[in-house]
Amino acid sequence: MNNRYGTLASWVYNLDKPVGRSFGDVEYYLERLAGSGPVLEPAVGNGRFFVPMLEAGFDIWGFDPSEEMLDYCRAACAERSLDVARVSRGTFEDFSHERRFAAIVVPLGSFQLITDMAAARSALRRFFEHLEPEGRLMIDLDAIEGFLGEGGRVRSWTTGDGDLLTLTDTRASTDYVAQTTVTHLRYELWKGTKLADTEMELFSLRWWGVEEFAMALREAGFTDVVASADYRYGQAPTKGCGTISFEARRPK
Fold it and tell me: Which residues form the Methyltransferase domain (predicted)?
């Protein structure tokens, strides 16, 4: 159940964050990666970020642990006559690829789905091993302020058939020592006035301090660590920024 992205969760994600929807990250990375060699996107999801990069001509590959999310990504690729074989099933903990990459990009806070510190450090080392010499790791993290709300929101989306999908989030716990939150996500599909399906997921995230994450990158072997606020490269994060983008390099 934890960070599962099952049938209803993936459906809601695809409605809320369809392929091509940008939060500033698509344009930012199109610019940052211009002229780059092969790119890997872990946690590719429904292809929101992946497909525009592939359409722009990047030699990009991706993986995700959720088959339901991958189904959306593959369908989006097929609709655009793009190579569906570029995405596969894998996790941060076990992914492996024969080739090495000029860049690895984890946009929109997906790295924070790793809540165990040892697992996060292991993933950073695995990223390091999959980069070419002088290859770049690029990771977006949400600022701490985004973790401190109490939840309790109800959101809704209308499906293509006119049915209603709802999502209710309830904060279950906040661990200030482990720097983690756990939220109960209840998805419901309504056909008219009748509940047709429901799904419960646990959504767990970890927040990082800016210097803490920079230290973790250096510990994994990376150099030239730069933290940027809200997709403005080189602008130091300050109180009130929403997204912190880290860029680091594997040495020669």
Answer: 39-135
Same domain, yes or no: 137 and 211? yes
Chain CA centroid to CA 246, Å: 14
Q: Which residue, among 22, 40, 238, has the nearest Cα to 139 in the 3D structure?
A: 40
Same domain, 135 and 151: no
The answer to the question of residue 1 being in a domain is: no
Strands ordered across the beta sheet of 151-158: 151-158, 164-175, 180-191, 194-206
- Residue 33: which domain range? 7-144+207-249
For residues 22 and 83, membership in a common domain is answered with yes
- How do residues 29-70 score in pLDDT, each as one tens digit? 999 999 999 999 999 999 999 999 999 999 999 999 999 999
Same domain, 224 and 113: yes
Non-local CB neighbours of 168 within 8 Å, separated by 6+ positions: 153, 154, 185, 186, 188
pTM, two decimal places:
0.95
Q: Within 13 A of 243's CA, how many CA atoms are on the CB side?
A: 18
CA gap 18, 160 in Å, rounded: 13
